[in-house]
Design goal:
Chain A is α+β, with helices and mostly antiparallel strands. Chain A has 8 helices and 16 strands. Chain A has helices at 43-58, 87-91, 102-115, 117-122, 165-170, 197-203, 207-219, 251-255, and strands at residues 7-18, 22-23, 29-30, 38-41, 68-69, 80-81, 123-125, 134-136, 139-141, 144-149, 153-159, 177-195, 231-242, 258-262, 275-279, 288-292. Classes of the chains: A alpha+beta, B alpha+beta.
Chain lengths: 294, 217
C-alpha cells in the first residue's frame, strides 16, 4: 500500500566506549566538528546500518534485496530469483530501436525499485546518461550530531602476535605489535529524517517498507556489534506523522519539541541516565501525531 | 507574476562546483539553481516556472571538510535488464570492491533569504495566476512541501520560512565580494543534453542581485 502521509522523524542514539563513525581523514578518529567539538555521524553511515539490518532480516531476497552490500555482513551472494514483471516484451520488440531511451530505462528503474529495498528507500543513480536515469528515494537523512561536545580518546593496545615471519625475525621472537583504538567515552547523538509520500509513490515504497524502516532504525545497532563500536543503541525514535501528504507543520518546529539536555549537577556524562529527554507533545499542530517508537 | 521570499537555513550545505565534483567543493553561496529547487520542493507544476531574482546572504561563509566512503559505480541498467529477462542473477554491488573515499568541502551554518518570482507559463496558470500564488503562500506558511527542501545535497536538509514583510527582517551580512563565475542554472531546452549556464556572482552588502546578472552558456 502506498504512503499517504508525510513523516518527519528524530533518531536519538548513544555510544559508550566506542567509535560510532570513524573519520578517514583523521586516522579513523571519531568524526568531530573541529570548531565546536561536537561529534558527527554521517547520513551514509546510518544508511549502511539500515541496509545491513534489512539485509539480515530479509535474507537479501526480493523484494527486500539490498543493492549496496557489505561483504562482512553477508556472504551469501547466491543466485536470486527476481520476479520478472512484464519485462520480456520490453526486451524483445522495439527495445533495440530506442536503446537507452527513457522508456526502457524507466522499466528497469521500476523493476529495480520493486526488488531492492535500498533502491526504493534511499534511491540510486542508474548508469545510462539520460537525465531521468535516477531514482530519488523518499527517505532523506541528515548528519547526526552529538548533544554535547565529545572527547575522543586514543588507546594503545598490544597484540601478542605478528603478521609476517619477517616481522618476527626483526623482533627476535618477541612477536608483539602495537595498535591503536579510538573511543568516545560517552556520546548521545541526534539525527533528523524525512519521508516524502510523493517520492514514495514514484519508487513504490509502501506502508510495509515504512514499518521495516522504523524497525531498522530501532534495532540496527543491536546487530552491528564490533570491537570498534563499543555499546551503541537507539534511545529514541520520534515520528511525527502528518495527516496530509504535504504535511501540516514545519519540520523544524516539530523537531524543536524533542529536547535533550544533561541533567542538573552532571558535569561529566557517562551514561544515558545523565541526560534528560523532554518531549513536548502538548498542543501539537492540528493534523500532526507524535508516535514514540523507541 | 508574484514574488515570494523564503528564509532558508541549515547546519551544512554543499552547492558543488562542477569543476570540482569528484571531491566536492561547494560554492561560497547558494546557486540560483539550488534556490529554484527549494521553491520547487514546495510547489511546482508544469504550468509554472520559478525565477530566482535575489539572494541575500545572512551568515558569514564558513567551511568544514568531511571525508566519506562512497561507491565508484552506478547501478547498471544492462545487468538489471538481463536479470529482468532471466528472472535471476546477481545484481548486488559490494562496497569493499567499489569503494572510494571522497572528501567534501562543505559550507556550515548557512542562512539565506531567497527572492523568486512565480512565472506562469501554462494556460491554466496564465488564466488563473491567483490559484498558484495562493497555493504556494498556503504551503510555505504551513511548512508543507512535496519533499523536504535541501541545501545542495539531500543530506543537508533545509529549514524554511515564508518572509511576508521584508522590512521586519534583519539586514543581510555586511560584506561585498566578487565570487567569480558561478553556475546559474541548467538549460533544459534539450532535456537529453542539458547545458550549464554561468554568471558572474557579486555580493554587494550581502546581496546577490540576479536581475542584473549576465548569464552566458
Amino acid at each position: 500500500m502506498s504512503l499517504t502521509n508525510r513523516y518527519d522523524f528524530v533518531l536519538v542514539f548513544d555510544v559508550r566506549d566506542g567509535n560510532p563513525n570513524g573519520d578517514p581523514d583523521a586516522g579513523n578518529m571519531p568524526r568531530l566538528d573541529a570548531e565546536s567539538g561536537h561529534g558527527l555521524v554521517t547520513d551514509v553511515s546510518l544508511k549502511r546500518k539500515v541496509r545491513n539490518f534489512i539485509g539480515m532480516m530479509k535474507g537479501e531476497t526480493p523484494p527486500f534485496d539490498i543493492y549496496v552490500k557489505e561483504k562482512a555482513v553477508l556472504n551469501q551472494a547466491h543466485e536470486k530469483a527476481y520476479v520478472a514483471i512484464g519485462a520480456e516484451d520490453e526486451l524483445k520488440g522495439d527495445a533495440k530501436k530506442r536503446k537507452g531511451s527513457g522508456e526502457t530505462v524507466d522499466k528497469a528503474r521500476q523493476w529495480m525499485c520493486k526488488n531492492f529495498f535500498d533502491v526504493r528507500t534511499f534511491g540510486a543513480v542508474m548508469s545510462l546518461g539520460v537525465n531521468c536515469g535516477q531514482v530519488r528515494g523518499p527517505v532523506q537523512l541528515t548528519f547526526a550530531r552529538s548533544v554535547d561536545p565529545i572527547i575522543a580518546q586514543e588507546h594503545s593496545i598490544t597484540r601478542m602476535a605478528v603478521a609476517t615471519e619477517a616481522e618476527a625475525e626483526k623482533q627476535q621472537g618477541d612477536n608483539r605489535t602495537m595498535g591503536r583504538k579510538h573511543t568516545v567515552p560517552y556520546g548521545i547523538y541526534v539525527a533528523h529524517g524525512f519521508v516524502s509520500s510523493f517520492l514514495a509513490k514514484q519508487t513504490g515504497f509502501g506502508e510495509e517498507d515504512l514499518e521495516l524502516l522504523w524497525q531498522a532504525l530501532e534495532n540496527m545497532f543491536e546487530h552491528d556489534r564490533s570491537a570498534a563500536r563499543g555499546e551503541m543503541s537507539t534511545r529514541g525514535l520520534y515520528v511525527f506523522k502528518h495527516d496530509s501528504e504535504l504535511g501540516n507543520a514545519h519540520a523544524h518546529a516539530l523537531f524543536d519539541r524533542i529536547q535533550i539536555a544533561r541533567k542538573d549537577g552532571v558535569d561529566v556524562a557517562r551514561s544515558f541516565k545523565d541526560y534528560e529527554v523532554t518531549v513536548d507533545d502538548t498542543g501539537l499542530p492540528p493534523g500532526v501525531a507524535l508516535i514514540k517508537r523507541a | 507574476m508574484t514574488s515570494f521570499c523564503l528564509e532558508v537555513a541549515g547546519d551544512y550545505a554543499c552547492f558543488t562546483r562542477p569543476e570540482m565534483k569528484v571531491e566536492r567543493v561547494s560554492y561560497d553561496v547558494i546557486t540560483p539553481s539550488a534556490a529554484r529547487s527549494i521553491f520547487e520542493a514546495i510547489l511546482w507544476k508544469p504550468a509554472i516556472r520559478w525565477e530566482v531574482k535575489r539572494i541575500e546572504v545572512l551568515k558569514p561563509i564558513r567551511w568544514i571538510s568531511v571525508r566519506r566512503n562512497e561507491i565508484s559505480s552506478k547501478l547498471s541498467v544492462r545487468n538489471a535488464q538481463a536479470a529482468m529477462g532471466a528472472g535471476k542473477g546477481n545484481l548486488g554491488l559490494y562496497i569493499e570492491e567499489e569503494r572510494q573515499q571522497r572528501a567534501s568541502l562543505l559550507l556550515r551554518d548557512v542562512a539565506y533569504r531567497l527572492h523568486a518570482d512565480l512565472v506562469p507559463v501554462g494556460n491554466d496558470a496564465l488564466s488563473n495566476p491567483a490559484k498558484y500564488r495562493d497555493m504556494f503562500q498556503r504551503r510555505a506558511e504551513k511548512g508543507q512541501c512535496v519533499n523536504q527542501p535541501y541545501l545542495g545535497c539531500r543530506e543537508f536538509a533545509s529549514r524554511f520560512r515564508l518572509v511576508s514583510d521584508i522590512d521586519l527582517e534583519a539586514s543581510p551580512l555586511n560584506e561585498s565580494r566578487d565570487l567569480g563565475w558561478m553556475l546559474y542554472d541548467m538549460d533544459f531546452e534539450h532535456p537529453d543534453d542539458p547545458k550549464p549556464r554561468f554568471f558572474r556572482a557579486q555580493i554587494e552588502n550581502g546581496i546577490i542581485d540576479l536581475s542584473k546578472a549576465q548569464v552566458t552558456g
